[in-house]
Amino acid sequence: MSQQVITPELCEWITEQTAAGHSAESILGAMLGSGWDESIARLALARTLGQSATLTPPPGATPGLPEPELTRFAPVVDAGDRQVKVLMALRQPRVVLFGDVLSNEECDEVMALAGKRLARSETVATGGDGSEVNAARTSDGMFFERCETELIRRVETRIATLLRWPLDHGEGLQVLRYRPGAEYQPHYDYFEPSHVSTPNILKRGGQRVGTLVIYLNTPTAGGSTIFPDIGLDVAPVKGNAVFFSYDRPHPSTQTLHGGAPVIEGEKWVATKWLRQGVFT
Ligand SMILES: O=C(O)CCC(=O)C(=O)O
Ligand SMILES: [Fe+2]
Q1: Residue 272: CB within 6 Å of ligand 1?
Q2: Nearest CA to ligand 1 atom 4
Q3: Phi and psi of 155, rounded to 5°?
Q4: pLDDT tens digits for range 81-131
Q5: How far is the CA of 39 from the centre of ligand 2 (A)?
Q6: Which residues contact 173 (CB under 8 A, 6 or more apart)?
Q7: pTM across the whole model
Q8: 268 in ligand 1 pocket by Cβ < 6 Å?
Q9: What SMART domains does the record point to (predicted)?
Q10: What whole-number distance in Å separates Cα of residue 146 and Cα of residue 280?
């Protein structure tokens, strides 16, 4: 085949095959047998059925999802070196609000370490003098290396224990600072299956399957973490953290979320993204 194009007819055929009970792998086999290029065939399947259908988990992938031990719904969860409070839990989508994940001193230390290295996040407003911010993400950000300092290692070990997900499946901690007016418009944290850069990103540990956003300070007003699909607003409170997980890279997970504009004061968060496998 010379020109291989993903047409609506092809997507419809894939849907029919699935409805007839064929697995994504067997549809892929049939497509390869009739001359389709493997990467285009996988892309067509991902677009039609969602990426998880054809996603080969990366080496060392952990089955299931990150999930705290909440079966007894005790008021605290043992996170190894700290008792973390459970303030609220939603089952569908999975959203858990924790209290006291970090001490005040730990929050201050992470902000001080990160503050020296903050750079304007890539999606900035064009034009103007920067005093008016309006792009999708108008915070300043930086990444720590995993286990970069003793403090970062301690925090990451605590997160791994709390969410029962291996430390090496986590990306380096990201710190964001929002000034008044800054926001992070609603988005999904998983990598969009049909995006051209996604296959390469997935080589380093597979998809993201969970997010923990830790509040490093308490803004005076605004800056809540919003989940528009489920009408949930989480107030940013120093030391608290909101966790959510998603088992497939699809809007049906209802994990659309964002950082509402900060109205007064600053808002600092540290985000830990969790991957299916070892993040390298
Ligand atoms: O700032 C927030 O409340 C949300 C941050 C966020 O969505 C992210 O870091 O992916
Ligand atoms: Fe996010």
Answers
A1: no
A2: 259
A3: -65, -40
A4: 999 999 999 999 999 999 999 999 999 999 999 998 887 554 434 444 434
A5: 28
A6: 110, 143, 144, 146, 152, 155, 156, 270, 271, 272
A7: 0.80
A8: no
A9: P4Hc (SM00702)
A10: 10
